[in-house]
Amino acid sequence: MTYTILGRCAKTGRVGIGIATFSITVGRYAHCARSNAGVTISQAFANENNNAIALRLLDQGFSAQAVLEHLKANDAYYTYRQIGVIDRTGAAAAYTGPGVRGWAGEVAGDNYIATGNGLVGQHVVAAIARGFLAEPDTDLEHRLLMGIEYGRDAGGQGTAGDHKPERSSALLVYSRHVHPDIDLRVDLHATAVEELRRIYVEYKQYEAYYRYRGEHPRGALSQEAFMKTIAAVA
Amino acid sequence: MTYSIIGRCARTGRLGLGITTFSLAVGGRCEGVAANIGVCKTQAFPNRTNDPLGIKLLAQGYLPARVMEMFAANDTEHGYRQVAIMNRDGKIAAHTGPGCRGWAGHKDDADCVAFGNGLLGPQVLDGMIEGFLARPDDALEYRLMRAIEGGRDAGGQGSADAHRPERSAAIKVVDRRDFPDVDVRVDVHPAAVAELRRVLEEFKLYEEFYRGRDTDPGKAIPQDVFAAQLKAKRASRTS
């Protein structure tokens, strides 16, 4: 049980993922994006080796579809996996094996894949895609989070009579650096999508300050002094 | 304001980092933990390019002390950074620039370096080392967790009249594979160290189930069944 949006910003080339699931600490399984290479995820019965292999292949220039074929050829349990790959051109390739449980599938287009399993129905991934596409000119992290929230609002995981809560979630975006632009997580929470939104809103206030402080230590405001400036604005 | 420990398990060669701080989402700024290579962490006023660069240099075989010299040569603001580096053999280098604010320093012992800034004093590092060394046969993630708790219990961040809360925390441990063995985080919380302990304990209950499910999917039980079994086990323990 998981639902995920993989996305790429066509304007900037930034790539990222938003993910929410019943499993705990999902961020541990989502080291899956690389600057100037692409983004991928292996979920359902996830082959933990896949993300690192896929990123190396993307880095070498293989297309999303070629990466998927490599993963297939390398895995005895391929039919239990659910995989998405977006390469640096925005081409998307996705697969949902017949061994994946519950309602499972994806909606994919240029620059995005909405994918999930153990869901209430197809309308969840359709809603995720709608959320991602709703405000195409905004920051990728905002679009990814919208995708996840639309998926939650469409019913998320479980069956009609038995909703399964989101217990962990993650939001990850890479731009041009080796390190991520955005890397936020909720590892264990009763409503992990709401909690991810809370963390996102908090973190966004500090994002520029943290960057500036690292790049310009001389005379940087202390964090307490910076927080007073936030309080003054609010 | 941050206190961290990098450590190595001498038995297994596993490497890891434990960290907590006043800043938010610190686990999202810990790229320098690499299986079979080493650990590199830059904090205080961090240079974000240091840690990935450090891992590349360690992978090429440079010693931590040499990596630190290259950092110094590559960064006009090296005097504002606090850096600790450990390679796969447990060799270490540490640096606390004079520009770091508050009480700041580092201390090493067997297979570990504790380092922090904006702290109550050196007793915080002592508490961390004590925590790390307390049970050397435990899995590395528990030793790192105990080190962070030792630092917190020794007073943590701030000054005698103004304690600063830990608002985020993380533990990352790598073994031999491309992805971390343990990767637990708390991003925004008023008592992030206690919350990290809660997340770690819960993760450890699921760890084997998740691994088995992914390597042999045909035999896997559904997660809600597994979760119900856990709940029953807990109930029978407490009754």
List descriptors.
heterodimer; A: alpha+beta; Glutamine Phosphoribosylpyrophosphate, subunit 1, domain 1; 6 helices; globular; B: 239 residues; alpha+beta; six-stranded antiparallel sheet; four-stranded antiparallel sheet; 12 strands; 36% helix
Can I get a quick summary?
The complex is a heterodimer of chains A (234) and B (239). Chain A is 35% helix and 29% strand.
Q: What share of the residues of chain B does DSSP label as strand, in percent?
A: 25-35%
Overall, the morphology of chain A is: globular
The number of helical runs of chain B is 6
Q: Kindly state the percentage of residues in helix of chain A.
A: 25-40%
- CATH topology label of chain A: Glutamine Phosphoribosylpyrophosphate, subunit 1, domain 1
Identify the CATH class of chain A.
Answer: Alpha Beta
Largest interface: A-B, 47 and 49 residues
Gyration radius of chain A, rounded = 18 Å
What composes the largest sheet of chain A? Answer: 6 strands, antiparallel
- Secondary structure tally: strands of chain A: 12
| Count of helix runs of chain A | 6
Topology:
The complex is a heterodimer of chains A (234) and B (239).
Chain A (H helix, E strand, L loop, with lengths): L1 E7 L6 E7 L11 E2 L3 E7 L5 H11 L3 H10 L7 E7 L4 E5 L6 E7 L2 E8 L2 H13 L5 H14 L3 E3 L2 E3 L3 E7 L7 E5 L5 H24 L7 H11 L1
Antiparallel strand pairs in A: 1-2, 1-8, 2-11, 3-4, 4-5, 5-6, 7-8, 9-10, 11-12
Helix pairs in contact in A: 1-2, 3-4, 4-5
Chain B lengths: L1 E7 L6 E7 L11 E2 L3 E7 L5 H10 L4 H10 L7 E7 L4 E5 L6 E7 L2 E8 L2 H12 L6 H14 L3 E3 L2 E3 L3 E7 L7 E5 L5 H24 L7 H16 L1
Antiparallel strand pairs in B: 1-2, 1-8, 2-11, 3-4, 4-5, 5-6, 7-8, 9-10, 11-12
